[in-house]
Amino acid sequence: MPVWVDPEKCNGCYNSRQPPCVRMCPGDLIVKDYSVNKAYLKYPEDCWDCLPCIKACPEEAIEFHLSYQLGSKGAKLVPHVHKTRDFITWEAVDNSGNEERFKIRTKVLKIDLDEQIEDGAEGLDFSI
Ligand code: SF4
Ligand code: SF4
After folding, report:
1. By three-state DSSP, how is residue 118 classified?
2. For residue range 79-125, what is the model confidence (pLDDT) as tens digits?
3. How far is the CA of 7 from the centre of ligand 2 (A)?
4. What was the pLDDT predicted at 70?
5. For 78, 80, 92, 113, which has the most beta carbons within 10 A of its beta carbon?
6. pTM score, two decimals?
7. Ligand 2 mutation pick, 6, 49, 76, max ligand atoms within 8 A of CB
8. Answer CATH for 3-127 from 3.40.1010.10, 2.40.110.10, 3.90.1740.10, 3.30.70.20
């Protein structure tokens, strides 16, 4: 079941040409549409739910929607990456709207945005 980029939350990582979600996808499935400054999953049929894109997004703009076998429409996992970036709290919502949260330790790996980033994003720590 593919991930989904919320266009309301995605800010395109300012004017980065290679935002973290694009860089982290091992299948090069996420691309940035420069005309609207948003990323999107271009090849959803090839997504295998490995989720580094979700963990790398500084805006928590990428959601993991559960397949219908696990939960029908509305069921989803939403990541909340801690400021220290070594934990993620997963917000799990079932198809009745019930919510549970799970705090999971995650690997920290520094990655840099490319040189095209605007001043406003300098100093941000993008890591998974
Ligand atoms: S990392 Fe997040 S905010 Fe940045 S371009 Fe990708 S989806 Fe948008
Ligand atoms: S879940 Fe994995 S394969 Fe799917 S878009 Fe994200 S990084 Fe790529």
Report:
1. coil
2. 888 877 778 898 888 878 899 999 988 766 555 554 444 444 544 55
3. 17
4. 63
5. 113
6. 0.72
7. 49
8. 3.30.70.20
